[in-house]
Fold these 4 entries.
Entry 1:
Amino acid sequence: MFLFKLRIPLAPAVLLVAVLALGGCSTVASWVTPYKIDILQGNVITREQVQALQPGMPREQVRDIMGSPLLASVFHADRWDYIFTLQRQGQEPQSRRVSVFFKDGVLARHEADDLPSEAEFVASLDARRGQTGKVPPLEATEEQLKNFAERNKPQAPPLPASAAPAPSTTQFPPLEPAR
């Protein structure tokens, strides 16, 4: 109704309102960001795993320690590559690599990036704890242990076989007719 009294053509007025509304979208878009999931790819590799590798280990033992390799090339049968990447919203991507070399079916050597310990890796996953720096205590008090023991008391042992009633025997017809 206001537009008709000022005798402003409708099309330019609508265009002006649209431009003003869309101009505000850039401000709102900077406040609101979409959720981006964490992308974890490859084998989790820690310093302790690499320290456990010893020259002369068979392939199976290396696989038990490190897991199955992410890359095992047909062209490089004596080399396994373990690659790990982690991308999280608001953080720099993490990338680690370990290459294991075999000779005659046993571990000859390995090459690795600078790797975190297992505790450092776990701490890097928990963003909330990483900000506060506190690790929650993982100890139970004597009272908690006592309550747990009371709730989980072993049940009475089963009756001996002599006291249990004998199972009834059932007669079944023969499988094939008698000849």
Entry 2:
Amino acid sequence: MPGAFVGMLLGGASPIQAGIVQLYVLVALLAVESVAILIVLEIIARGLLTRTGARLSFRA
């Protein structure tokens, strides 16, 4: 993630603009992680994903 900040600075942006982009990237990653968690929880709740031994299996 530091690459966004440094890249913006090297590209001529101000530190404030670079910081805003860095925060945007952080918030976007957190949002994607949250959606992924909700999807996995929904799949588990519907019983489509089960754990057998050390493996995960999907039911069709």
Entry 3:
Amino acid sequence: MDNYDNATIAAAIDHTLLKPEARAVDVDRICNEALEYSFAAVCVNSLWVPKVAERLEGSTVKTCSVVGFPLGASSPVATAAEVRTAINAGAQEIDMVMSIGEALEGNWEAVQAGIVEVLASCADVPLKVILETCLITDSHKRLACEICRDLGVAFVKTSTGFSTGGATIEDVALMRSVVGPDIGVKASGGIRDRETAVAMLNAGANRLGCSAGVAIVTGGVGAEAY
């Protein structure tokens, strides 16, 4: 059911540019688009945070930085240092990738310790934890969401958009069922049109990570890649 107006959908979108070949002109473009359509945030690699923060200063659009991205295989200490650098440069939200290998090993103490390390560096800046749902089982997803819920992170997030799959309605619904109403769920990866965006919102997402934000709110279809 689509009961959403364009402004409501736009307000849920993290307008995303994470391609390694992104240049300054591309960053300028997505900032301009985010300001025009009043998206929730512009999400970039930490390299571009100073430029984005300067361009968005004084607006309602947040500056969001990914860290430990896209593999989730950096040491927690290194990821925490990236967090501090990004926040000092103007990041207002942080998206981290949890340790996927540790999750697959069943080493949940290490997964939790990594999130705790990053969360401590975030201080009052909201943290979103990416599960990379395409690589883990439903049991893993539940355990990861329980850890994030109990730690009080701001959001759990489905995907990086750089692995074997993106957000699914089933994963969003599962994640929402575990974290409850007080923690955000961010669907990301493969959201290219309004129909898909609405389906994710209906399933329980309240934030959408996508590079096709303009297409979504104007009725088009965006490109697949971030």
Entry 4:
Amino acid sequence: MSFLGSIVSKILHPFGGGSTSADAAPADTSGSSGTGAPASTGSAPAASGEPVDVEAVLNGMAAKNPQTLNWRTSIVDLMKLLDIDSSLSARKSLADELHYTGDKEDSATMNVWLHKQVIKKLEENGGKVPADLKD
């Protein structure tokens, strides 16, 4: 699965099911209650097709994480929160997936661009994204 597909899947489909245009496959449910049923956090996708509250999902994950991760602005921290490889080579691969045309050796600029693109893709794939995370 692509890096973007993994990100989208872990946020928008944490209990499996559903597909996205980001090449997402069903997520690993090993962190669930074992029933495969969504937890009653209000952040799981609704059967009616309502958008997933991206902020609520990520804040919930951050609250359970022993590290202090700034997922709101850092692509590295967002990937760490999702337990996805956040190394420079992984971020360069994500940049390739998202058709980044800038200098990949300028990692700071690339990282800012990646974060914005990932947030945009989450919204395009059914996520409700807070206004302060959009361009």
